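Is it possible to get an amino acid sequence alongside its tokenized fold?
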Amino acid sequence: MARNLLAVKAFLCVLVLTSGGYLYLNDMLGSRAARLFQLAEGLTPPPRLGEMYDVVEMSDLAPVTSVPPTNATPVTLIPPTNTTPVTLIPPTNTAPITLIPPSRRVRYANLSGLGFPLPVLTCQPKGRLGNLMGQYATLWGLRRSYHVTALVSPKMKTSLRMFPSLSLPALGAPAAPPGAPGPSPRQHPRVEWRKVGRSGGSYYNFSLVETAAAGLLGPHHFQIQNSPFEMQLFGRFKDDLRREFTFSEGLRDQAQRFLSQVKQGQRARGVPGAEPMWVGLHVRRTDYSAHVKKLFRGGLPGVGFLERAMAHFREKLGGGVAFVAASDDPRFIKATLSRHADVYFAPGKPPELDMAVLASCNHSIITLGSFGFWTGFLTGGEVVYPDVRFRRSYRFARKMYEAAHLDNFTPLPA
């Protein structure tokens, strides 16, 4: 009897376990089927933990000011399969990298100032030729990116007179006296110029300027301070900016005559070859050595960098290479490179002629500074620059060039 009772109990236990497993399995299959039917009908099931991601596009140039999300369609992340890896597609050159998306631009209908739609941007001209070109190119890039009114001051227009193709209109005011900061309420008594510049405690965070250009600071007149040099805008408009910075016919003729004289000198010395491959070489010497080293806590490119850069082009281009060297310290550059038979020296002055000569070359070697940057940018060939390691962000460092998508800029050890 006891044995029969034990067998009955065992049978009941097996029956309960089997029924529970069946109900659990049926419930799971039913839930999975319902989920599949939802997907088939175009419905999105509730997200599970780990399926929600915040997509934030950051810039390597500077700390980013937080920007509220737009009302655009959210991005859906598709997890990779086990068969085909996901390939990240680099951005194209059709749009610049901006911290404020151009899609957030605010338009002000029927509001104008100085005869132009608001908001209006201009820039306080500051520095020498290379810096002024950077300020103009920043204004031009903001105008192209946000369709904002961008005007140049009379002082900037005069300082950049060697580029007759500049397209940005000038403020309709008398020329500023020497040393004046540019447009001011005195020149335009009815206009209040609001100053905008870098923000966030960084030397290179000009997100506030982009905010003004997008109209998010209101329909006002803004004067950009702090010598902006928004390189990330330049890289996306290479051809356009090269057209903007087309030298006058007189400067182009002088540059070609200089290069012709160099070729005649080569023939007189018995150098073989027809047309040499020109490599412009610019060294900024006097005004950056102590300042940059102290401010950004890094080493500086030495003579060894120049030797490596020239060896790079000799190996790449063969025996037909000719270097044209220029510097803001002509005595230093001549004392450093005179022993090289394939190095020739630019006229030395005025600075715009040196830039026109270097920009007429096929390739470039540059050190630090805005003047050298523009000689390489305008040349269009390969630009070799020193890979200097700074403890703080520096404008003419490798990280900045790569973030600006200047793909023809090649780093070499400093």
About this structure: The mean pLDDT is 74. The chain has 13 helices and twelve strands.
